[in-house]
Amino acid sequence: MLLTGAQILIKTLIEQGVDTVFGYPGGTVINIYDELYKNSDKIHHYTTSHEQGASHAADGYARVTGKTGVVIATSGPGATNLVTGIANAYLDSTPMVAITGNVATNMLGRDSFQEVDISGVTMPITKHNYLVKDITKLAETIRDAFALAMEGRPGPVLVDITKDVQTGKTEYEPSPASAAGTPPEISTMQLNDAAQLIREAKRPYIYCGGGVIASNASEALMAFADQIDAPVGLSIMGLTAVPYAHPRYLGMVGMHGRYGATKALYESDLLIAVGTRFSDRATGNKVEFMRDRKVLQIDIDPAEIGKNIGVTSCVIGDVKGVLSALNALLPQLEHKDWMERIQYMKEHPDNNLEMNPMRLTPQSVIEGACRKNGDNVVATDVGQHQMWTTQYYQFKKPRTFVTSGGLGAMGFGMGAAIGASIGAGFKRTILFTSDGSFHMNLSELATAVTNKLPLIIIVLNNRVLGMVRQWQTLFFDGRYSNTTLERQTDFVKLAEAFGAVGLRAETNAEYEKCLEEAFGYDTPVLIDCTIDSDERVLPMIPPGGSINDIILR
Predict the structure, then answer these.
(1) CA 289/CA 277 separation, integer angstroms
(2) Dihedrals φ, ψ of 65, to 5°?
(3) What's residue 422's pLDDT?
(4) How far is it, in rounded angstroms, from Cα 426 to Cα 194?
(5) Measured between alpha carbons, how far is 369 from 365 in angstroms, rounded to an integer?
(6) 84-97 as b/e, with b when 16 or more CB fall inside 10 Å?
């Protein structure tokens, strides 16, 4: 079958089961968009306001569905606008295929109009990238890209396709969807060593990361925790792997983690790290983090073993497979004294810091939305509101929390919430954001309105860049350099200008009315919540600190 490169691209996307893509058209992808138009009954394309929003939408879609997110952009500025989204997917291990157009092969390297070496630009932030200059390699390259995005530790892959490849013709042979590679075989010796460590432990502690969610291993993890009688603390990417109400749930660990989760980690004698990469925000002072405890690391990516924290032992393999194998090896264990100590820490007043209930606070805003939202998806931007969400939102199911963990990209939220809502089947999705973050991505409100997405956008409006201001308060003697924004944006009128519903709350009573009204709409609603500029995210362990340095009040 003789087809153009653009036709082959669309055929291979359909082969891979792709029915949803995000992007923005342009000159070097116009042939691809023409084929998308002809195949709009098979692939739905969502046009965002900006390529960065499209990349975050593909990320949010992938996290909610477990599929590979797909984003398309033109050359030059279109391609570079994807970079933050690709980097975010790389640090958070999200499977993504980014497709960019480029100038014709004979124009490469000549500073042609809108030419950028996007392969070179993205080399450090992709699992792999391809520049396709030979049309006969196009179908095979796309198939390889999808397999690689899901293989092992998931991540982004970029395919840059020159204009002449899109318009040229070659024979195309259909092929079944590429299967991700087989997970590495689990070593019996590593399993036996791990089981021995676990048997010897008196105070085991499971530290769970995003690898548990990527591996769909939540049930296996909870069975493992029950079998070895251990509590579970989580990284930000691990949140939702264990329900908030589960008796072994301790919450997030680290700089803004819950007191009990971090305190228990420091009192453990065996840390079992499952699918997590030991971010510096989680570990703080690494010497103190490792003091007086052994570390068992379980991860599918051999490169993660011992990268940030030295380990006593490890098991390399798919998390779900490793946990199931350990469950089969181990007897039922019991640590009565340790679990009584854990319960004491969970009930300790420092583990349940509350804000003043007499005014509209971040806690009351987030807990109020949580009561109404059930187990629908929640997305966040980045900043104080993100940390408050991790502390006060009671997640019930895996894949219901979409946030920028590793990169910490302000401006992530709107695109991610759009992709998440679409991936969840156009279900209600809440976005917690702030006035600072929302100013970075508010143009995607147009995308949400155009597609009639049932988003509730809750702006925690403190009129400052709150997280930086908090650091300035604590560590820079209150020198608020450029964090007091003094912007005059009327978010209610702004929402209405985009065609959304705009509401405002300054008290708890007003907020409850706004929530009631917002959940009655099936189109985007923005609630502008006025909170105090000096609300802080507590607890806080200063950068490089330990539990001994924790700030509670």
Answers:
(1) 14
(2) -90, -25
(3) 98
(4) 43
(5) 6
(6) bbbbbbbbbbbbbb
Nearest in space to 342 (alpha carbons), one of 222, 221, 250 = 250
Active site residues: 51, 113-114, 163, 467
* Main-chain phi, psi angles of 78, to 5 degrees: -60, -45
Distance CA 484, CA 481 (A): 8
Directed axis angle between helix 259-267 and helix 336-347, to 10°?
150
Kindly give the pairing relationship between strand 2-4 and strand 169-171.
antiparallel
The sign of the torsion formed by the CA atoms of 81, 85, 87, 88 equals positive
Q: Determine the Cα–Cα distance for residues 274 and 315; give it in Å rounded to an integer.
A: 10
**Measured at the alpha carbon of residue 16, what is the angle toward residues 430 and 40, in degrees to the nearest 5?**
70
**Identity of the amino acid at 528:** D
Counting every residue written for the chain, the total comes to: 553
Cα end-to-end distance, the chain, whole Å: 70
Identify the residue whose tokens are 């204009």.
163
* HSE (side-chain half, CA atoms, 13 Å) at 18: 31
Neighbours of 7 (CB within 10 A): 20
Separation of alpha carbons 294 and 181, rounded Å: 32
Residue whose C-alpha is closest to residue 214's, from 328, 324, 299, 124: 299
- Supply 306's token pair: 């011992």
DSSP-derived 3-state class of residue 497: helix
Digit-coded pLDDT (tens) for 443-492: 999 999 999 999 999 999 999 999 999 999 999 999 999 999 889 999 99
Closest CA to 448 of 4, 65, 8, 46: 46
Tell me what pLDDT residue 183 has.
78
pLDDT attached to residue 178: 67
By C-alpha distance, which of 69, 158, 172, 175 is closest to 118? 158
Strands of the 377-380 sheet, one edge to the other: 401-402, 377-380, 429-434, 455-461, 525-530, 501-505
3-state secondary structure of 261: helix
Mean of per-residue pLDDT scores for the chain: 96
HSE (side-chain half, CA atoms, 13 Å) at 233: 30
Cα gap 26→46, rounded to integer Å: 14
pTM of the model: 0.96
Point out which residues pair with 129 in neighbouring strands. 158
CA 455 to chain CA centroid, Å, is 18
CA-based torsion, 99, 103, 107, 113: positive or negative: negative
The packing angle between helices 188-200 and 319-329, to 10°, is 60
Query: Which one-letter DSSP state was computed for residue 332?
Result: P
For residue 4, report the phi and psi dihedrals to the nearest 5 degrees: -75, 165
